[in-house]
Structures are given as structure tokens and as C-alpha cells.
């Protein structure tokens, strides 16, 4: 699962007087100086998400889903088949592992399942930060690192966790990048996202990469299920609630999966009589139509390692919101002396302002916006006046509001597509959208804007049936459950 560590804890307050002055770099200003207020006004209008715009976004999302289901390559949305045709029932039993690689952290987990009676008897996990250099290393180096951490974790098995004698341990591998799945336990990496640029993995089966690395560690383990984090989250949430039909991750990156009827997937070429359902991984981060984008988004995209790609993700997800705000503030500092005569060096550094920072600034209810002042000082190296702090909070709110509302419109797009194919089956009954990811979990204003957009788009009556709810850490347990469902051993 992708996690941004958006702590709600306020960072320590530093008195600017008691710490050394931040370094500043003098820049020559452009002669046509403007006011911060006018940049802000333009930002408000460029980021506006009125209801008609949200409607267009949700319709475009539904249309792109249909196109992606019709044929590969026909849409921004890849609509990837997950090969998960049966969701957990509650009967799953035994010890299973889950390995979750999706962002700056990866997680190993063991889950002891006890069938309908015992359910999830016990879980244990370890979380490891991926060293930054490994995000640019070779595939072998990355997978060897992961397998070595897994081996250490397996060594500590004991207590409530019992693996059956003579059996190979089975792993559910949550791999949260765009993969062309070829079976439940194989899939080829299409593209790294979220800042990863590991060489030699794209075009390869990531399960083979992991199995080989586990072999090099001498581990007797096999991957029984390869799942996207949204697919794991859907399976995990469905284990507790039969009404879960959609799962959305809003963390470092973003994506959504949902339950689709097999006969609604023309590219599957399934016999008309096939019936049944499967999970589709939309990879909605690649969606791009009708989004209200600003010059700051365009510049950030152009400077990214995947220009022109993942535009929805770059507009709404945790990896990027802080960076968009930084770019706006930098422009305000440069063109409108927001922080005085000089432009702080740190503020010029891409990604120096993180989404947890903008979230914390938005929570500041003090009269002088002290927390905002302290974050600006620590993170961006600026000494700010109250007036500037207010503008900064406004910029954070504008970017978070646009992100939350667009995410809400995306969810409604999925629901409308499902409802369009099966009148009443989604809007006419309780339907749950399981949400996870650090951005959703830790950013209350973002969450509120998302919910507002869903309610505005669906109207009060239908909204009563649509439950958008946090389902924490479902993807790890979901992957373990899918490993159980797809076990090589008889149930
Ligand atoms: C990846 C998806 C993933 C999402 C959330 C995106 O960048 O392409 O596969 O589900 O992030 O982690």
C-alpha cells in the first residue's frame, strides 16, 4: 500500500530568532511585478471545480472506462484484468504472507487466518523504507533488498503463527504499479510511477523477479497472488462487507479498482454465457480529460520523470500536492515578493514542501498562524509575516480542494458506469467504496472535499446509499486472503 506519512502532529515550533537565518539566494526579479493576490485570484479560477465541470469529469471517466474495456490501448485507462475472479469468502484458513511494494515504504506481513469462526486470528508486520538510491538502482538490486528483508521477517515466525510442516510458504504480492497481469500470479511491469526509475524491470514479469530474488536468499516461498494495492484493498474490505464494490487508494499515488461483470468486458472475448464477475484495476491515475490544470501543473509535469503521463495522479495524489503548492509559492516569492526581497534557496528545491506539510499548515487554527510560520521557516527557509501566511494557507486549500473534488468526481464516474450497465444494482442499494492511503487517511479537508463532490454529483437521495469509507490497511490482508484463495494446496 502506498503511504504518505502525513502525521497530524504539529512539528516543533522554532523561534526564528533562536535558530540561524535560512540561506537565501538573491534572484533578479522580473520587471513586470504582480501582486500575490492577483496570482491567487488566477489560481482560484484555474483550479475551480464547479458542479458542471465535475459532471464532465465523471462522464469522461465513465466513457474512458468503457473504451478501455473494449480494447487495449483504446483509452487512457488501461482497465487491467486482475484475474481475481473469486473474492474471499471467510473460509480461508492457515498462515499466509503478504508483501507490499508501492511507494517509499514496503511492508512484509504475516496473517493467520482461522476460517469463518476465527477470521483474522493474528497479524504481524514490518515496514521498511526503501533507500532512495534503490529507486534508481537495477531490478536485481531492488528485489534482492526486498527478499533479504522478507527473509529476516520469516526467521522470526512463531507464537500464534503456524506454518504447516513441509509446505511452501505462500505470499500475496501487492505490487502497486501498472502491471499487465497475465495470470493471478504473473504480470509484466508496464511502467514505474511515483518517482521509481529502476532499470531492467519494465517489460519483465515482476513475480519472476521476486521468486528469483527469494531463491537467491534460500527462501522456500512462492507468490500465489500478484495484486495491485487497490485490488488487495477491495478483497480485504469485501472480506468484512459484501456491499464493497469499489476500492480507491489515495496515497503517494492513486488508483481505483471495482467489481465488473465479465460480460461487460468486450476485450476479454468471454462467451456471452460466461456470467460471473471479476475485479478490474482501472489505473485511473492516467486519466486526463477535462481536468482544470494550471501553469504550475504543466511545469511540474514537464519536469517529471514521466512527462505527459499520470495527469490525474499528478493533480490529486499525495506525491504531488505539496510540490504544486511549492511551485505556486515560488512564483509568488519571485514575482510578488511574498517573502520579502529575496527568494529562499530551499523554496527553489523541487519537492521540498511535502503534502503532509501543507496538510499540517491547513490545520493551524492559531491567531498568528504560528505553525504555518514554523513550517515555512523549517521547510522552505522563509521568515513570514501573517499576511503571507494567510496567502499560503489559501494556496494549500485551493490545491487540496481541487484534488479532493476531482477524486470525488472520479469515484462517481466509476459508480455511474456500473449503474449504467445494471440499473438499480449500485444506486438502488447500499454500495460501499473502500478508501485507503495516507492522503485520504490523514488529510481531513481533502476528505471533506471529496465527500462533498460525491454528494453534490449524486444528489441527496442516491448519496444515502453510497458509503465512502476508510478501510485501513485492507490491502495487506487482502493480498494474504487472495494468496489463500489461490493456494496450491487444497482448501
Ligand atoms: C500506480 C497504481 C497504484 C497507485 C496507488 C499508481 O501510481 O500506477 O498501480 O495502484 O499508484 O498506489
UniProtKB/TrEMBL annotation:
Entry's transmembrane regions: none
Presence of the UniProt keyword Nucleotide-binding in the record: yes
Ranges in a coiled coil: none
Segments of this protein annotated with the region Disordered: 1-21
Keywords: ATP-binding, Glycolysis, Kinase, Nucleotide-binding, Transferase
Family of this protein: Belongs to the hexokinase family.
Descriptive protein name: Phosphotransferase
Organism expressing this protein natively: Salvia splendens
Organism classification: Eukaryota, Viridiplantae, Streptophyta, Embryophyta, Tracheophyta
